[in-house]
Amino acid sequence: MPAKKDPRDTLIAAAMELAAERSWHSVTLIDISQKAGLSLADIYPLFKNKSDILRAFVRKMDMRVLADLDSADFDQPRHDRLMDVIMARFDALAPYRPALKSILHDFGDVGLADGARAAKTGFASMRWMLEAAGFETGGIQGSLRVAGMGAIYARSFRQWLDDESPDYGPTMALLDKSLNQAGGWDSRLGKGLARVGTLRSKFAQRCPKTATDHGEAVAD
């Protein structure tokens, strides 16, 4: 007996098929439910709205890319590994390119209330892509890496959407150039933060001594 298909996957697939056929703005939850062969009552406990379905699609792509990682490549330079991770993501997205063009044309049809959640999902996705390439994403530098990767990915994504070359050469060239530039900024930032950390350590070491000297002077 075949395994029962996850209704979430069924709804995501239905939504993407409809987006490829017409304007994403015109697609309703009723359309998606009918395409998926499910009722609105089936959708209700799974997704709040269309934006929720899109966020689930993004997470599904994250899982697909992470599941295909080859541990043999973990020793690659981080730049090369990040290139591979992002290009693998574009390969995973390739079957949905018509749908993604429709969704992007309507800016995801995201309302104000969903904008923050959509941004949070996007940043979480970029954080996982960076982690998969061996980059640390904690602290100030890590947060800036995630934000920078989001900007680079958005620019490369737009290039990829219209890239009809067999190997996505123009997209790879843009991604490589952007990552090289960001790598230079990241290196300078790391050195600057290291200097700040050194100064803070020196200051912290001097503070107890200063406080002790002040206490002795008061006692005298």
**Classification by helices and strands:** mainly alpha
- Termini separation comes to 89 Å
The CATH class assignment is Mainly Alpha
> Can you give the mean pLDDT?
90
The radius of gyration over CA amounts to 24 Å
Continuous helix count? 9
> Any idea how many domains?
1
What do we call the CATH topology? Tetracycline Repressor, domain 2
Shape: globular
Low-confidence stretches: none
Topology:
Blueprint: H1 7-21, H2 29-36, H3 40-43, H4 50-67, H5 78-93, H6 97-105, H7 112-132, H8 139-161, H9 169-219
Helix pairs in contact: 1-2, 1-4, 1-6, 4-5, 4-7, 7-8, 8-9
Keywords: DNA-binding
Domain HTH tetR-type: 5-65
InterPro entries: Homeodomain-like_sf, HTH_TetR
Please characterize this protein's 3D structure.
This protein is mainly alpha-helical. The chain has a single domain, classed as Orthogonal Bundle (Tetracycline Repressor, domain 2). Helices cover 75% and strands 0% of the residues. The chain has 9 helices and no strands. α4 crosses α5. The chain is globular, with a radius of gyration of 24 Å. The model has no long low-confidence stretch (mean pLDDT 90). InterPro entries: Homeodomain-like_sf (IPR009057), HTH_TetR (IPR001647).
Features:
single chain; 220 residues; mainly alpha; Tetracycline Repressor, domain 2; globular; HTH_TetR
Short description:
This protein has helices at residues 7-21, 29-36, 40-43, 50-67, 78-93, 97-105, 112-132, 139-161, 169-219. It has 220 residues and is mainly alpha-helical.
